[in-house]
Amino acid sequence: MSLDIDITELYQELILDHSKRPRNRGELPGSNHQADGHNPLCGDRITVFLKIEGGRVVDAAFVGEACAICTASASMMTEKLKGLTVQQVETVFGDFHDLLTGHVAVADVAQRLGKLAALSGVQRFPIRVKCATLPWHTMKAALDDRAEPVSTE
Predict the structure, then answer these.
(1) 12 phi, psi to nearest 5 deg
(2) 3-state secondary structure of 47
(3) CA gap 49, 31 in Å, rounded
(4) For 36-71, what is each residue's pLDDT tens digit?
(5) What does pTM read for this prediction?
(6) Which sequence spans correspond to the domains of the chain?
(7) Which has the closest alpha carbon to 72: 10, 12, 149, 137?
């Protein structure tokens, strides 16, 4: 078995684990930022909650009904954001978005993204990129205190 296959299998297991047992799923008492997101193409609907204190994300969570890719992405995102400054969140958002839209290679951002790099395979399926990025655009709307729901369309 080649190294590429082992990595692919590991990534698939990581994504499946987060989709079946999402972390930080549930409303977040004490959140001070939140936004709703919707992907009309596949029906994903999520709400992202952030608790920011002193310019740092102290907690993050999400609720909603979403496909496996969207759920895994939201779960992995909320884990990654905890403890980051708002500026670091902006950087991670940009890196993740650039990775999934094919603007950077995995090797260029893998160290900064950590486990999130597992979602890089989604870029081979353009229709699923919206599923993986919906939680991120929703998180960005929450961060920016945008009242209108985010849509992938």
Answers:
(1) -65, -40
(2) strand
(3) 6
(4) 999 998 899 999 999 999 999 999 999 999 999 999
(5) 0.90
(6) 3-148
(7) 12
